[in-house]
Amino acid sequence: MNAIANKQETFAARLPDSPVRVVIIEDLREVREGLMMLINGTRGFQCVSSHRTMEDALEKIDDSAPDVILTDIGLPGMDGIEGTRILRERFPRVPIVALTVYDNDEQIFAILCAGASGYLLKNTPPLRLLESLREVLDGGAPMSPGVALRVVKLFRHFHPPERASYHLTPQETELLRLLVEGHHYKTAAHQMGITTNTISFHLKNIYQKLQVHSKTEAVAKALREHII
Q: What pLDDT, in 10s, does the model give residues 177-211?
């Protein structure tokens, strides 16, 4: 336990002063409370609210509260997939990460298409979970290794239409290519020799032209329709 605590302290020490504000949506009390303890017990993170159901979360999440939303899929009442669609519409700039026991193709594909920016299994180690929350805020799309492999296999089975054109500029096309390769804001900015603010500007235009709401959706559409 001391070794884990020391590693967690080292990781936390690298975080900036402003804490990552996390909302948890999880129906199992022991899991929900465990996540709260992990997040609130790590410097640089804060659990601003936790909810047993998606309905409760949709009613109570404050517009300015979360930096990232962590949600289960198998919830009582409205499930995490439908809830993610609604959350994405209400909070288009807030990344949503699925944390679930499900690792089947249907659940993975459904919630990513609904707007989730990441997909983690509940056996994800605590330190990796914390790193994933940071990663998604940097424009990444964290996934458990087995899930990432399934996503690749899913795309292999697509039969895309002819190459689509969405009138992307050369820089927008280059940025989209980098996103498909797994880059996030900072590394894409470095590769293109521009600032992260310019990356944000181009990304906003890409989302508008492709009619998507997240990096994950943009990458999925780019691969599905041979945009790049």
A: 898 888 888 889 999 999 988 998 999 999 999 98
Give yes or no: residues 194 and 105 share one domain: no
Torsion of Cα atoms, 66 then 41 then 141 then 185, to 10°: 70
Task: Answer with the one of 119, 154, 189 that is the final residue of a domain.
Answer: 154
Q: What are phi and psi of 192, to 5 degrees?
A: -90, -10
According to DSSP, residue 69 is labeled E
How far is 125 from 174, CA to CA, in rounded Å? 34
103 within 8 A of 147, measured Cβ to Cβ: yes
Over residues 1-13, the pLDDT tens digits come to 444 444 444 344 3
Q: Are 180 and 223 in contact (CB under 8 A)?
A: yes
d(CA 142, CA 95): 11
Query: Residue 218, Cα to own-chain centre: how many angstroms?
Result: 13
131-164 confidence digits (pLDDT tens): 999 999 988 889 988 887 777 776 666 555 555 5
CATH no. for residue 132?
3.40.50.2300
- Reported pTM: 0.64
Query: Are residue 133 and residue 184 in the same domain, yes or no?
Result: no
**Structure tokens, 76:** 């009582």
Check if the beta carbon of residue 82 is closer than 8 Å to that of residue 60.
Answer: no
Q: Residue 125: which residues within 8 A CB-CB, separation 6 or more?
A: none
